[in-house]
Amino acid sequence: MRLTFQPRLLGSTATAAGPRRTCSIRPFCRQRLHHHSQQRLTVSRPARPPSIRWQRAYSSSRPCLGPAQPAAAPSPPPPPPQPSKRRRAIVLGSLAVLVGGTVYWATAGSASGSFDDNGQRRLAAGGRGGLNTETFVSFAVVARDRVSPTAFVLTLRLLAEDGVARTATAAAIATAWQHGLWSVEVKQPQLQIARDYTPLPRVVGEHGEHGEHGQHSADGTEIRLFVRVVPGGEVSKYLSRRAVGSTVDVRGPRLSFDVAARMGGDGDSDRQVVVLAGGTGISTALQAAKAVLGRGAAVSILWANRQADDSIGVTATIDAKEANPIVRDIKALQTRYGADRLRVLSFVDAQQTWITEPAVRQAIAGPNGKSSGRSWYWPWGRQETTSSATTQPDTTDPSCVYHSARTLERLDADVFRGSTTTRTCSCGAGSAGKNLVLVSGPDGFIAAWAGAKTWAGGQEQQGPLGGILGHMAARDPETFARWQVLKL
């Protein structure tokens, strides 16, 4: 039999030492005990002294009984770890290098120049405020001529009065015109973005330079830009708000292709240049015309616009005072070199006239190609002769940067990237050269006619010939062997 006890609190009694609590303990078991074995036990416990208050105190290891202690104030959080002196020195040193490099690039870069791909130092005129390829310099808006409701021509003149800066700017512009095709960058200062614009050539007409305006500065520090405001075009929208007397930031020139060197045959009247121009691409067409007309070549321009306002009077007799600046430039070039050597056809979307493959094929045939009579796309007529270019042998060096189609696919200009050093022809003396088809305009226009440009190594390249001209070349390789297509 197992005996257990079950205590029960009975209460407290008063004694001399103080109150005493008592309880009874009864044994119980599974079997019933005899009555005489059941006993009541009384257990007493000394009462706590009235002056001492007891409480259970806890430590980190075990519970214990002890006197109450006053609550301690909460300890403050530990301070954050301080970086080591070595780490602080590394951070401060990195910031100093970053700030110093930024200041040097912004202030000393243009004055000290940079290096081209051949390791030669390329000095920049911008150190004294002249037009250069490193920094943007200010040009003043001296004229603004309307072309159509959405297009205009801005005439810009170097703002700096320093003689060295003006001389350097005039020299840079003259070198660009001598090279052939070129452009400048115009900056939108609020958004810090830039866009390339192709300057219009200086033309002398019956009313002086640029028609009746005749406002070119004598020192050659002016450029003229043909601008069209397009939806989403932040730079064109910015330029549309620049009034006469305001300033525009310009950088350049950026040299493109040397059309005269690619064409070859200096003084050969059989040389031809055909330009397919979309909208403001007429600026490139006029640059090409200026570069080759003086060498005896013939130029045919097929100019496409959405509205007729841009090209009113280009194919008809019109008073120069009523023509817009672009048409005046075309008329002035025709007056100087002859309308038979500079032919311009106008195509307008609103009038449902578009550049077509037959029109391009006829332009490639040229004024001396085999044809008879006049047509709606070639109103000047042609002689029954065959161009002497068909009998010239092809002496193209497969690696020539000027005349090899394969090499051309990897180029974006006839100068080394980031410099003004011109590439050289490797075909040797007596090279026949190439006739040129230039495609200039919006990206979609270029892709439709010649295929899209490509990108490689962060650089835009010509890419393979495609589009309508690519199909034409595939069907008639013998003819196109004498022609080269440039996407501009």
TrEMBL record:
Cited InterPro entries: CBR-like, Cbr1-like_FAD-bd_dom, FAD-bd_FR_type, FNR_nucleotide-bd, Riboflavin_synthase-like_b-brl
Cofactor(s), names only, from the UniProt record: FAD
Protein name: Cytochrome c mitochondrial import factor
Family (UniProt): Belongs to the flavoprotein pyridine nucleotide cytochrome reductase family.
Keyword Flavoprotein: yes
GO-annotated cellular components: membrane; mitochondrion
Superkingdom field: Eukaryota
Keyword terms: FAD, Flavoprotein, Membrane, Oxidoreductase
Region called Disordered, residue ranges: 58-86
Start and end residues of each FAD-binding FR-type domain: 134-260
Amino-acid positions noted as binding FAD in the UniProt annotation, renumbered to this chain: 195, 197, 235-236
Places the protein is found: Membrane
Stored Gene3D superfamilies: Nucleotide-binding domain of ferredoxin-NADP reductase (FNR) module, Translation factors
Classification via Pfam families: FAD_binding_6
Start-end of Pro residues biased regions: 73-83
Major subcellular site: membrane
Annotated source species: Sporothrix schenckii 1099-18
GO molecular function: oxidoreductase activity
